[in-house]
Design a protein that fits this description.
Helix content: 40-55%
CATH topology of the largest domain: Transferase(Phosphotransferase), domain 1
Strand content: 5-15%
Main location: membrane
InterPro entries: BSK, Kinase-like_dom_sf, Prot_kinase_dom, Ser-Thr/Tyr_kinase_cat_dom, TPR-like_helical_dom_sf, TPR_BSK1_C
Number of domains: 3
Shape: elongated
Number of strands: 8
Protein name: non-specific serine/threonine protein kinase
GO molecular function: ATP binding; protein serine/threonine kinase activity
Order of helices and strands: EHEEHEEEHHEEHHHHHHHHHHHHHH
Radius of gyration: 26 Å
Subcellular location: Cell membrane
CATH architecture of the largest domain: Orthogonal Bundle
Strand order of the largest sheet: 1-5-6-3-2
Oligomer: single chain
Length: 484
């Protein structure tokens, strides 16, 4: 074992915890211009409904799915920016003004160590937050539920440092309070770097609860007063250090008993054997112990955590995605014939593929038939679809648009394929914005349909939006690979 309990000293509990923190060189991560994030924006419910394909169950990314009190969805704005949308339950945030003030304040923060807040929505009873979407799962998933390999020691140290830097940045910006800091609040971005979710910087709701129901992990002063303080956040950081050290979610009281008894073999993750020295193990345990002090004033502040964690870093030249075993961001899947046709803007080839596919992909989509299906209205609607199909087959795209529009406006049946066909018809008729709108609507109906993403890419290319088109193209290839 890399960390032998017999060599761990009682420095975990020594008087260093009361010494003033020394200045850390470059402790605060520098602001990066390349974050390229827009200013805080207030969205409408309809915009976010479209972005999340109607708040589709397939787009839920929160840990407990639809059972979570406040559900988080992944989504995509019209400009192809990926977002995470947190939708609060109806009883949360009854005071709209308070919600907006909180969101706007958190939305001023911009840092590479955060999953930054991009905007919000406050409309009627709806309260939604919009943040950067990070695709590579939570720290909880990588630590507790890993499938391929356990997280390496060097990466665990990097996680600890990045989180300390995130908290230091927030503290320096006047947002020292973070509610319910835990392994589910840490998310990995495209490059495999850990970032702290901005959602915890918001007050939860009018119920005032700032911690999950598991009282074993809450700071002792919170149990007494029900209030969160900056020192409470440091206590939660200590529980995260224990998670990183053990690979398990161990209650602090149990961990502290093990530390006091110097029974560190039960505390450290057996998967880490040989990856760290006794001194490194000792230092991390010491830091965790300082954070978990019963008296809040005896805990460190974020700056001193950064000072202590920075010298411990290993393999600093190795990118995070390598340490994590995550495919590099630029690694694209091979494109299918449809994807290639979109890149070439070969609209004739796209037409041939859609014509050959027919309506096969409507099976299982959210198609709807109303009770009017056997009425004359339904018959007329179906006839307009059939006429549109004939026009589409014979490349009479103006007639196809007209007939498909009658079918869509009839409202008795919803078909993603009709939207896809009208999208291509618009594209060939040099109406790229209308084509994009239809491609987005096709994805609202069928969130995991790759053709909708490919048509968005073609529509964006037609508008000269190369970067956004590449995002849509990559998403289409990923969805297609999952389907087949």
């Amino acid at each position: 074992m890399g960390c032998k309990c017999s060599k761990l000293s009682t420095c975990c509990w020594d008087s260093e915890q009361n010494n003033p923190a020394t200045e850390a060189p470059n402790a605060e991560p520098e602001e990066r211009n390349e974050l390229d994030l827009p200013a805080f924006h207030e969205y409408t419910v309809e915009q976010l409904r479209v972005a999340t394909s109607g708040f589709a169950a397939e787009n839920i990314v929160s840990e407990h799915g639809e059972k979570a009190p406040n559900v988080v969805y992944k989504g995509k704005l019209e400009n192809q920016r990926r977002i995470a949308v947190k939708r609060f339950n109806r009883s949360a945030w009854p005071d709209s003004r308070q919600f907006l003030e909180e969101a706007r304040a958190v939305g001023q923060l911009r840092n590479q160590r955060l999953a930054n807040l991009l905007g919000c929505c406050c409309e009627g009873d709806e309260r939604l937050l919009v943040a950067e979407y990070l695709p590579n799962d939570t720290l909880a998933k990588h630590l507790f539920h890993w499938e391929t390999q356990p997280m390496k020691w060097a990466m665990r140290l990097r996680v600890a440092l990045h989180l300390a830097q995130a908290l230091e940045y927030c503290t320096n910006k006047g947002r020292a309070l973070y509610h319910d800091l835990n392994a589910y609040r840490v998310i990995f971005d495209d490059d495999g770097n850990p970032r702290l979710s901005c959602f915890g910087l918001m007050k939860n709701s009018r119920d005032g609860k700032s911690y999950s129901t598991n009282l074993a992990f809450t700071p002792p002063e919170y149990l007494r007063t029900g209030r969160v303080t900056p020192e409470s956040v440091m206590y939660s950081f200590g529980t995260l250090l224990l998670d990183l050290l053990s690979g398990k979610h161990i209650p602090p009281s149990h961990a502290l008993d093990l530390i006091r008894d110097r029974n560190l073999q039960m505390l450290t993750d057996s998967c880490l054997e040989g990856q760290f020295s006794n001194d490194e193990g000792t230092e991390l345990v010491r830091l965790a112990s300082r954070c978990l002090q019963y008296e809040p004033r005896e805990r460190p502040n974020p700056k001193s955590l950064v000072t202590a964690l920075d010298p411990l870093q290993k393999d600093t030249e190795v990118p995070s995605h390598e340490l994590m075993g995550i495919p590099q961001n630029g690694a694209a899947l091979p494109l299918s014939p449809l994807g290639e046709a979109c890149v070439r803007m070969d609209l004739t080839a796209i037409h041939e593929i859609l014509e050959k596919l027919g309506y096969k992909d409507d099976e299982g989509a959210a198609t709807e038939l109303s009770f009017q299906m056997w009425t004359n209205q339904m018959q007329e609607t179906l006839n307009s679809k059939k006429k549109g199909d004939v026009a589409f087959r014979h490349k009479d795209f103006k007639a196809a648009i007209e007939c498909y529009t009658v079918f869509i406006e009839g409202g008795t049946m919803v078909s993603p394929t009709v939207y896809a066909r009208r999208s291509l018809s618009y594209l060939i008729s040099e109406m790229p914005q209308e084509a994009l709108n239809d491609a987005i609507q096709a994805q609202v109906i069928s969130p995991v349909w790759h053709i909708a993403s490919y048509l968005q890419a073609a529509s964006l290319l037609a508008q000269g939006k190369e970067n956004e088109a590449q995002v849509a193209l990559k998403e289409g290839s990923v969805l297609e690979s999952k389907k087949y």
